[in-house]
Design the sequence.
């Protein structure tokens, strides 16, 4: 019986947990912010997964923007802390203002309008991009 347990553990380590990256929990004032998973990469001992997706503006084009207050704080939480997190705004299908996130929060704009963002997160053996859209009022 002990041998079977060790075999299961060894098999898991050998194959790894390749697949989708950890999913974030995004919120503003405890209100959940919906997002779409974009491109991601994962690598384990025997398996590498690379999934390409459309650019963030295309990922969220059919989503209803979630309304947030001017200068609201976006909270970003993962079950496993990323080594690096970068948030970018998208305007006219171009990525602008990439900003590294160090404290799991990001201040949204003061100016009213609809904003598309992407978050790129990196771990030692995986990475993921997540897109969302908000309307600042």
Sequence:
């Amino acid at each position: 019986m002990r041998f079977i347990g060790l075999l299961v553990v060894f098999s898991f380590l050998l194959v790894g947990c390749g697949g989708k990256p950890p999913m974030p929990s995004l919120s503003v004032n405890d209100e959940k912010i919906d997002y779409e998973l974009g491109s991601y990469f994962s690598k384990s001992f025997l398996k590498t997964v690379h999934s390409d997706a459309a650019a963030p503006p295309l990922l969220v084009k059919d989503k209803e923007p979630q309304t947030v207050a001017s200068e609201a704080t976006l909270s970003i939480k993962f079950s496993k802390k990323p080594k690096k997190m970068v948030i970018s705004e998208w305007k006219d299908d171009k990525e602008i203002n990439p900003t590294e996130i160090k404290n799991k929060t990001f201040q949204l704009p003061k100016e009213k309008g609809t904003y598309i963002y992407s978050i790129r997160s990196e771990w030692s053996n995986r990475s993921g991009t997540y897109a969302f859209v908000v309307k600042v009022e």
User: Anything to note?
Assistant: Residues 5-16 have pLDDT under 50 and may be disordered. The chain has one domain: 18-136.
